Amino acid sequence: MDKGVLITVEGTDGAGKTTLIEYLKIWLINKKFDVIATREPGGTQLGEVLRKILLGDHDHDDQHDANTRISARISDQAELMLMFTARMQHLQEVILPAMEAGRCVLCDRFTDATYAYQGGGRGISERRIQQLEDWVQQGLQPDLTLMLDVPVEVGLQRTKKRGRTRPGGDRFEQQQIDFKEAVRQVYLQRAEKYPQRIKLIDATRCVAEVQNDLIQSVGAFLKARCGACK
Q1: Fewer CB atoms < 10 Å away: N or C end of the chain?
Q2: pLDDT tens, 60-102?
Q3: Beta bridge partners of 36
């Protein structure tokens, strides 16, 4: 490809994003695409530091206690600003250079997640998020978004089965069912609002069926974009 592409994968807790992103990455590499996989919040040194604070995802590091205290005090508005701070650095340091080099960027969450979690979950206005999106992204949108959907109850059952290295999970996994349902509803609304970009995938089915849907969606997109995957 002369110009790179940005493919994002979205979904609520328990949708199976991590496993499916790895599968999709390998599939793209086998198709001879130059792929970089990254995540939000994170993807850069600064982003990973902010991730630990935002998610309370400390991995038993030396800053565990300090990060836990900081995480507990983050206001909703500060959380939003930190998300976009991480995204700004991510874009400038990783995503935009990779796209300019013609690479395929595969990103675990992007701005749709902000509308879902900080908008739907935290109740911050869509207008406020849009203002930050316009400033940080300068019109950049994912070329394709794969949205993995599972009912909240199914997601909760899956996360319990997987088990957790941290009691209760991260700050967002610890939220109540009403929060999680609000997040899912915003995701569904955005899939309905942007059907050309967002492909909604039923992730309640077996892994093989979901993988097949991912391949079909990405293959069709790449064929239309650059004639690949025929």
Answers
A1: C
A2: 455 555 555 556 679 999 999 999 999 999 999 999 999 999 9
A3: 105
Tell me the β-bridge partners of 11.
148
Residues 122 and 33: their CA atoms lie apart, in Å, by 38
CA distance 183 to 188: 9
With a cut of 60, say whether residue 229 has pLDDT above it. Answer: no
What's the angle, vertex CA 191, arms to CA 137 and CA 125, rounded to 5?
55
Residues sharing a CB contact under 8 Å with residue 39, sequence separation 6 or more, in sequence order: 107, 108, 109
Q: How far apart are CA 47 and CA 67, in angstroms?
A: 14
Q: Residue-wise over 198-218: b if at least 16 C-beta within 10 A, else e?
A: bbbbebbeeeeebbebbbebb
| Angle (CA) 52 176 50, round 5° | 15
> Residue 225 — pLDDT band, cuts 50, 70, 90?
confident
Q: Please, which contacts does 19-23 make with residues 24 or more away whose CB atoms are closer than 8 Å?
A: 19/207, 20/148, 20/203, 20/207, 20/210, 20/211, 20/214, 21/106, 21/108, 23/211, 23/214
Tokens of 138: 């300068």
Q: What is the residue-averaged pLDDT of the chain?
A: 89
108 beta partners: 9, 39
